[in-house]
Amino acid sequence: MKTVILCGGSGTRLWPLSRTLFPKQFYPLFKGHSLFQRTIERNLSHTSEFIIVVNQEQYFMAEDQFRALKVTVPARFILEPEGRNTAPAIALAALAVNSSDEMLVVPSDHLIQNETAYQVAIKRARVHAQQNQLVTFGIKPTHAETGYGYIEATGETVVSFREKPDTQTAQSYLASGKHFWNSGMFCFKADTFLKALATHAPKMHEACVLAWKGSSQNSPARIDSALMKAIPADSIDYAVMEKSRETKVIPADMGWSDLGSFDSLYEALPQDSDGNVHDPQTLHLNSHRNLVVADKRFVATIDVDDLVIIDTPDALLVSRRGSAQKVKDVVAALKVTKPELTHIHTTAHRPWGSYTILEDAPNFKVKRIVVKPGARLSLQKHAHRSEHWIVVDGRAFVTVGEKTFPLERNESTYIPKGEVHRLDNRESEDLILIEAQVGSYLGEDDIVRLVDDYKRI
Amino acid sequence: MKTVILCGGSGTRLWPLSRTLFPKQFYPLFKGHSLFQRTIERNLSHTSEFIIVVNQEQYFMAEDQFRALKVTVPARFILEPEGRNTAPAIALAALAVNSSDEMLVVPSDHLIQNETAYQVAIKRARVHAQQNQLVTFGIKPTHAETGYGYIEATGETVVSFREKPDTQTAQSYLASGKHFWNSGMFCFKADTFLKALATHAPKMHEACVLAWKGSSQNSPARIDSALMKAIPADSIDYAVMEKSRETKVIPADMGWSDLGSFDSLYEALPQDSDGNVHDPQTLHLNSHRNLVVADKRFVATIDVDDLVIIDTPDALLVSRRGSAQKVKDVVAALKVTKPELTHIHTTAHRPWGSYTILEDAPNFKVKRIVVKPGARLSLQKHAHRSEHWIVVDGRAFVTVGEKTFPLERNESTYIPKGEVHRLDNRESEDLILIEAQVGSYLGEDDIVRLVDDYKRI
Q1: B78/B61 Cα distance (integer angstroms)
Q2: Residue among B185, B180, B182, B190 at smallest CA distance from B6
C-alpha cells in the first residue's frame, strides 16, 4: 500500500513553537521526534512507498527529518508551490502512483496513541478499499467537541457528514454513539478516488491532471506554479466524500488527537506525579498541572497551577490552560507589530542545513551556520555586507572570488562586500561555521544567487 | 556632607535578575537606571563627596554606573576584599574622611519614592548630628512586617531597638504609632561614630584602624585582605546603635522599600490600568496584576493573574505573586545542580568592559566582547584554546606574540593556542568584538595573566 502524508498544515496555533515557516508537524515534541516523523514510523509496517505532499518551502525540512529516521521504505516527495487544500493534494498523489494502488491518506500533524487500534482500523479499511469504496475513519468522541466535523454512521455505512456543531448538538452527538469525529484520514484505490473526483469535481480533476502532466515528475516532483494556481481549492470532504455514495467509515478508538492547541498537547504528553508536563532541565516548586516546553533555558516555577509556559529563544508565552484558543489573538497582534516572530524561528532551516542568529545588531550580525554533509550553499554575493567565516567543527570547501580552497577547523576566511563566494561541505559530517556579518544593511534579501543546487534562482 | 553608600548586598532574592556576582543594586530596573544610580541621584543636592564602599569584585560595575551618570560631585571608592557587615564598612568610611565631617550613611539597594520627605528627614538628622548624636531613620510602617527590625521611639528619642517580631507583635507595633522600621540609614559626624565604636566595640575599632592604615588609601582604597579578615563582623545596630545612649531617630514616611522580593518590586514599579507591571515589548491579553520583567525577548500572557514572570537570557522564573520568599528555595536547589545560574549572567562585567556568551558548545564558544574607551584586557595566554577576533564596531589595538597592530572595524585576527596576546581600546568609543574560541577546554580559568591594569595577577 502507498501511504500519502499530507504536510500542508501551516498554522500558528502552537505559537511560539510553530511559526508560518515551521509548522507544528516538524517540531521535535516527542523525545526529539516530530509528529511528521511519528507519522512515518506508525505507517512503516503496511507501506511499500511514502508519497509526501509538502509545500516546497518545507521540503528540505521534511526530507531531512525523513532521512534522519534511516528507514528502508522509500519516499517520493510532491512539492506544492502553494496549498490548494486537501482534495488537490490527494489527487496529485493519486496521479503519481499506479491507478490500481491502494492509498492510505494521513495528515502529518496528528497524534495516535493506540497503534494497535490504528492497525486494526487500517486492515478493515483495506477490505472496503479493494471493493472500490472511499473509506474514511471516524474517531469515537471523548468529549462534546465543537471544533471538529462529525460523521454519522450506522455500522460502517456513512449516514451523513455533519458540520462543526454547537455545544448542545455536540453533546447529543457524544451521547448518540453513532457520531464520530472526522479524522482527515482516508483509504481507497487511486483510480477509485480519481474517478470520484472526475464525477463530483470535474474541474478540479482536470486541473490536477494538467498540473501533474505539466510538472517534473521525479522525486521531488515540483508542481508548476501557474498550473497549481489554476486548481480550485477545496477539501476532500466537500469535493468528494460528502457527494459520493461509495463511502464507508471505519469507527475507531485509537487515542487520536489533532494537537490543535496547547490544551490538547498537554493531554497528549506524559505528566509527572504533580500533573506537570515538562523537560528535565526545569524545576517546579508546589506547581501542578502545568505544560512547560523549554528550549535551552532553565525554567523554574513556584506555586503556579494550570499554566502553559512555552519558552523559545525569541518569544515566551505564559497562558492559562484552557485559554489555548486565544493564542491566535496574540499571533494576530504580532503580525502587525512584530511579524518576524510569527514567521520564523531564530533557527531557520534551509535546503543545505540551517542557520541560527546568535546576535542581531544594527550594523553587525552573528550566525551559527550548519551545512549538511554533501550540501553546499548557492554561489552568491552581497551588495551591502562583508562576511567573516570561522570553521568551528568539520571542514569546509570555500570559494572566494577566483579561489577555491579547503578551510579546516579553527581556520577563518574573509569575504569582502560584493565578492562572489560559496560554502561547500564535501565531508560526511556536519560543517559548523560562525559567521560575523559587518555592513550597513544586513537583511536576508541582500543576496544575488549565481548558481544554486536547490533551484532558488 | 559626605554620603557613604554601602554596596555590600549580595543576595539572590531577586534571582534570576540578581546573581551572586550581580546583586540587585546594579540591575537597571528603573528606566535603565539601577538602584545604586538612583541612590547617587537622590543624594546629590546635599553631598560634597560620595564614599562608596563596595566589594572589590563589583568595583568596576559601581564605577561604570557612577561614571555613566556624569555628575559633578566626586566619589571615592573603598574596596572590601570581603564583607564584614555594616559596622566595619562604615568605620572604614569614617576613617577615610575628616573627623569633623558629617556623614550620611545609606544602603545602595533601597528605593525611596517620596524624596521631599527624605530631604526633610535628612535636614532634621543633621541638626542632631551636629550635636554629636548618632542618628537613625525610622520608617513609618505601612503593614505588620515581620521581616524587619523595629525602633521604638518617643518623638525623636530612641526608647529601644527591637528584633524582627512575630506576627502578633508586628500588628501591635503597627497599631502603636511609636514603632518604626529600622531603615539602615544613619547620620553622624565621623568622630562621633568612631568614638562610639571605640567605646562599644573596641576590638572592631582597633582592627578597622589597623586595616585602614595598612591599606592603599587612594581612590580606590583597596583594603588589605588579611587585615580585613581580622575585623570582627557585625552590624552597626548590634555593635553601636543598640548600646549607645547618644542616639536619635527621625521618624519619616518617605515611600521607602528595601525591594527585598519580587512582591515589593511589583509594589514599587508603575502599574498599567490592568495592574500589570511590564516592559513595552510585552503583550498581555486579559491578564492582571502581573510583574513581567523581560530582557530582550518578546513575552505574551493570556488569561493569567497575579504572576511574577522574570525572563533573563539563561533562566526564566514564573511564580505566584506573594510566593516571592520561595525564590531562595529555587536558588538553593540550583546551587547544587546548576551553580553557574546563581552566580553570573550570560553577560559578565569586567574591569575593562563586559562579555556576553552568544553560544556555548562543547568544543567552541562565541562571545561578544565590549571594551570600554581607554581600557585594555590583561596581557594573557591560554593553554587549551585558540581565539578568532573580529572587530564589528570601534577600533582595536591588538598584541599577538611579538606584534602590536591596529585592527579596524571589519578586520579580524587569529591568536593561536599558547600565544601571548592583548586587546586594547585606545579610542574614545566602545570597541565591540566577536570572539570565537576553538579548543578542547573552554573554561574561564584557562588564563595566564602576564600584565594587568586591574591587579588581578
Answers
A1: 14
A2: B185
Beta carbons of A121 and A156 less than 8 angstroms apart: no
Residue of A nearest to B300 (CA): A317
Give me the residues of A, 337-356, that contact B with CB < 8 A: 338, 341
- Select from A277, A308, A337 the last residue of a domain: A337
Q: What is the dihedral of CA B358, B359, B360, B365, to 10 degrees?
A: -90
Structural domain harbouring A173: 2-257
The reported pLDDT for the residue numbered B325 is 85
Q: Residues A92, A225: one domain?
A: yes
Grid cell listed for B445:
580559568
- pLDDT 10s digits, A136-158: 999 999 999 998 999 999 999 99
- Å from B367 to nearest chain A CA? 10
Contact call for residues B280 and B292 (beta carbons, < 8 A): no
Do both A356 and A220 map to the same domain?
Answer: no
Q: Which amino acid is at B286?
A: N
Tell me the per-residue pLDDT of A76-126, one tens digit each, with 9 for 90 and over: 999 999 999 999 999 999 999 999 999 999 999 999 999 999 999 999 999
Angle, helix B190-200 to helix B86-96, in steps of 10 degrees: 130
Instruction: Return the pLDDT at B21.
Output: 87
Name B247's bridge partners.
B134
Query: CA of A374: how far to CAs of A392, A429, B270, in Å?
Result: 18, 9, 56
- Interface touch B303/A319, C-beta < 8 Å: yes
Residues of A in contact with B294 (CB under 8 A): 316
Q: Which whole number is the average pLDDT over A38-50?
A: 97
Within an 8 Å CB–CB cutoff, is residue A317 touching chain B? yes
Q: What pLDDT does residue A12 have?
A: 81
Per DSSP, the three-state class of B330 is: helix
Q: Above pLDDT 90, what percent of chain B?
A: 87
A11: pLDDT strictly greater than 90: no
Q: What is the mean pLDDT of residues A449-457?
A: 89
Structure confidence at residue B8 as a pLDDT band (50, 70, 90): confident
Q: What is the pLDDT of residues A393-410, one digit of tens each?
A: 999 999 999 999 999 999
* SS3 (DSSP) at B404: strand
Q: What is the pTM of this model?
A: 0.90
Residues B440 and B420: beta-carbon distance below 8 Å: no
Asked if A444 has any chain B CB less than 8 Å from its own CB, the reply is no
Please check whether residue B329 touches A, CB under 8 A.
yes
DSSP state of A101: -
- Hey, what's the cell of A35? 509528529
Question: How are strands ordered across the β-sheet holding B347-350?
Answer: B347-350, B353-360, B364-371, B431-439, B385-393, B412-415
State the average pLDDT over residues B127-139. Answer: 97
Phi-psi region of A194 (alpha: psi -120 to 50; beta: other; left: phi over 0): alpha
Residues of chain A contacting residue B320, judged by C-beta atoms under 8 Å apart: 302-304
Q: Do the Cβ atoms of B103 and B188 come closer than 8 Å?
A: yes
A279 inside domain: yes
Residues in A 267-286 with any Cβ partner in B closer than 8 A: 283, 285-286
Whether residues A313 and B297 touch (CB distance < 8 A) is answered with yes
Q: What's the CA gap between B287 and B278, in Å, rounded?
A: 11
**Residues of chain A above pLDDT 70, percent:** 100
Q: Is the pLDDT of residue A277 over 90?
A: yes
Domain count, chain A: 3
Residue B38, class by beta-carbon neighbours within 10 Å (0-12 exposed, 13-18 middle, 19+ buried)? buried
- How high is the mean pLDDT of chain B? 94
What ipTM does the predicted assembly reach? 0.88
Q: Are residues A280 and A198 in the same domain?
A: no
Among A300, A316, A337, the domain-final residue is A337
The enclosing domain of B410 has a CATH number of: 2.60.120.10
